[in-house]
Amino acid sequence: MPSVPAHLRECALGMLQRGMRTADEARAINCNVRTVRHLSTTTGQTSDHPCSGRPRVTTPAQDRYIRTSHLWDRYRMATKTARVTPGTHNPSISAQTVRNRLREAGLRACWPVVRKVLTKHQQRHLWAQTHCRWTTQDWQKCLFTDESWFCLTRGDGRICVYRRRNERYTEACTLERDRCGGGGSIMVLGGVSQHPRTELVVIAGNLNAVRYREDILLPHVVPFLQAHPDMTLQHDNATNHTACSVCDFLQDINVSVLPWSAKSPELYPIEHVWDLLDQRVRARAIPSRNVRELAGALVEKCGNISQQELQTWCSPRGGDAL
């Protein structure tokens, strides 16, 4: 029979003290007569006696070995530790036992954080130390340029949904997505600074070094830099930006380029402009139906971004928020 709850044991003990018959009391609380008789022989104790439970298969010394070996080698597999650790009653223990001991020590299996491989020639802190003394006037002379993709039916970032425990496949918590491109996408390129910005350029197809030089730099970026000769061009280390033909072209026309450290995170101010532009395009009452309408909406909304908003992102204070 199942164990009698503690509150029924207390009731049974009270009935016994009032002189109730054992059989009637067992019938009242729906338990065995032997259980009531056992309560009558106790000295008022109604709680369960302590049980030893399943015997532990590892010793305290083995527990310390398991914890120390995994602290020494964080990528050590539990199956390997189980093979070399004998049990107290068996020649070996299971991998689940090793995981249990590690969990007791506060060690859980998690996905590692992936870091980029940086050589001694790619130390980003040197770049930061060089430019940490730049003043507001120095950063005002930078033209931050970048390309960005905009999708027609959805954003290309992660989307979160708030759901309950068993609502994973409910209609309100699922997202329809086309695996073959999501309805189309388009690439645009622009440049922002505390001075007037460049126009937004819609790029058809892929962008290589030749197209970047002939279709972007020559007709759009270079005229802006020539109108502001004290400006410095900033672009990342994409292959179409660092190609020899592009570097020679910029050097020939005396364009100053801000050196950019390798494998740097995208922390330049124009990233905030792309996020703001995407929010305003998707907030339209009538969404874009094709790539052509999306391109027109991007150019329109980009022209509506005020220069005051751009100055907020391009100022040193706005850069601190990156």
Q: Percentage of helical residues?
A: 40-55%
Strand residue percentage: 5-15%
Number of domains: 3
Shape: elongated
Rg (CA only):
35 Å
CATH topology of the largest domain: Nucleotidyltransferase, domain 5
Number of strands: 4
* Unreliable parts: 318-322
Oligomer classification: single chain
Physical arrangement of strands within the biggest beta sheet:
3-2-1-4
The overall average pLDDT, rounded, is 81
Number of distinct helices: 15
Q: What's the N-to-C terminus distance?
A: 65 Å
Write up this protein.
It is a single chain. By secondary structure, the chain is an alpha+beta fold. The chain folds into 3 domains: 6-41; 60-104, no CATH class; 125-320, Ribonuclease H-like superfamily/Ribonuclease H (Nucleotidyltransferase, domain 5, 2-Layer Sandwich). 44% of the residues lie in helices and 7% in strands. The protein is built from 15 helices and 4 strands. It has helices at residues 6-17, 22-29, 33-41, 60-72, 78-84, 95-104, 124-131, 136-139, 209-227, 239-242, 244-252, 270-282, 291-304, 307-314, 316-320, and strands at residues 142-151, 185-192, 201-203, 232-234. A hairpin with an 8-residue loop joins strand 2 and strand 3 (201-203). Helix 2 crosses helix 3 (33-41). The longest helix is centred in the C-terminal third of the chain and has 19 residues, at 209-227. Mean pLDDT is 81; it is low at 318-322.
Please outline what is shown here:
The protein is of the alpha+beta class and 322 residues long. It has 15 helices and 4 strands. Helix 2 crosses helix 3 (33-41) and helix 12 (270-282) packs across helix 13.
